[in-house]
Amino acid sequence: MKKLKYERAKMLKRKFFQQNHGQLLQQFVSQSAGIAERMIMTLEELEKATHCFDNDLIVGGGGHGIVYKGILSNQHIVAIKKPKNVVRMEINEFINEKDQNHCLGRTGCG
């Protein structure tokens, strides 16, 4: 029974990863190492870094999400963008924000 739950959770994780353009993010990360350390993190890791997206850690925001100051377990300080609920057409706009000059990198996929 536990194995079945584990396999189902693994399948859902893979489905959501593909559905939310995780492959595009992985491609971007592998091609763009250098300016900043980049990594893909779980929601739990992002919540820990931002103290559950504490409002006191908000450093900015825009049409597609809110940017939080986060501190990773290795003590690196990072900017973490939490997307707002968006429709599928807006996802590509959110992804394309990485190309703006003021963005050093993207941390997380959620």
From TrEMBL:
Superkingdom, natural source: Eukaryota
One Gene Ontology term, aspect cellular component: plasma membrane
InterPro entries from the UniProt entry: Kinase-like_dom_sf (IPR011009), Protein_kinase_ATP_BS (IPR017441), WAK-like (IPR045274)
Keywords: ATP-binding, Nucleotide-binding
GO-annotated molecular function: ATP binding; protein serine/threonine kinase activity
A GO BP annotation: cell surface receptor signaling pathway
Keyword match Nucleotide-binding: yes
Binding site for ATP: 82
Keyword Hydrolase annotated: no
Protein name, as recorded: Protein kinase domain-containing protein
